[in-house]
Amino acid sequence: MITLHALKYSRATRVLWLLADLGQPCNRIDYDRTDAFRAPPELSKVHPLGKSPVIDDNGALIAESATILRYLSDKFDDGGHRPAKDTADYWHHEALFDYVEASFADVALKAIMPAFEGKPVPQDAKAVLDKHLHYIAMAIGDGPLLFGDKAMLADIQMSYIIALLDRLDLLNNHPKIATYWNALQQQPGYIAATRSAGPMAPPAD
C-alpha cells in the first residue's frame, strides 16, 4: 500500500484526490503546520527539503506532486485522467499540467503571500496574476473543466493554487475561474479527499 506523507493544507490533497478516483487506499501520515504556517521539522526526516507530499511505495520515496500524480496514474494503469496519447489534446494537457508548478505557482504566490499576511497585493503582482488567470480561462474553453466535465491530472494539479486564490478573494474579477473552481469542488475525488483530510486551503479566521 502507498504511504502518503501529507502536510495539512498542502498539495498532498492532490494525491488523495487521484487515489480516491483510482479507488486506491493509502496509509496517510499527517503533519500539522507550525504557528508560522511552515512544515514541521519532522518532514525533514522524510525528505531532505522537508517536502510534502511524498509517497513511499515499498521503500521507493517519490516527491513533487506532478511526478507523484504521473507515477500513480501509470502504476495503476489509469486511462481516465489524460486525453488519448498522440492527440493534440494529450500534449495540450501535458503542457498545462507542467505549467501549474513551472509557471503559475510562482506568479500566484507573489499575490497569495502578501494577501495571506493581510497586506495589499502589489499592483505588478496583481497584473501578472490577472494575465495568467486570463490564460487559464481561455484554456477552460467551454468547460466546465479543462477537458470537459471530468477532472484530468492537469485539473487536479491546478486545484490547490486556485483554492488558495479563492480563499484570499483573488478570483473576484475572474468569474470564469470562480466557476471552474466550483466545478472542481463537485468532483467525487475532491469531495472524498477533503472529507478525509480537510480543506485544501486554510479556513478564514
What do these coordinates show?
By secondary structure, this protein is α+β, with helices and mostly antiparallel strands. The chain contains 7 helices and 4 strands. The chain has a 4-stranded mixed sheet, with helices on one face. Helix 3 runs antiparallel to helix 4 (123-140), helix 3 (88-116) packs parallel to helix 5 (153-167) and helix 5 crosses helix 6. The protein is globular. The N and C termini lie far apart (36 Å). The mean pLDDT is 96.
Q: Please, what is the average pLDDT?
A: 96
Structural class: alpha+beta
C-alpha geometry: globular
Number of strands: 4
Provide the helix percentage.
Answer: 40-55%
- Spell out the helices and strands N to C: EHEEEHHHHHH
Question: Low-confidence segments, ≥5 residues, pLDDT <50?
Answer: none
Distance between the termini: 36 Å
Q: Give the biggest sheet.
A: 4 strands, mixed
Strand percentage? 5-15%
Count the DSSP helices.
7
Radius of gyration: 17 Å
Q: Which strand order do you get reading across the main beta sheet?
A: 2-1-3-4
How would you concisely characterize the structure shown here?
With 205 residues, the protein is an alpha+beta fold. It has helices at residues 12-22, 65-75, 88-116, 123-140, 153-167, 175-184, 188-197, and strands at 2-7, 26-31, 54-57, 60-63. 51% of the residues lie in helices and 10% in strands.
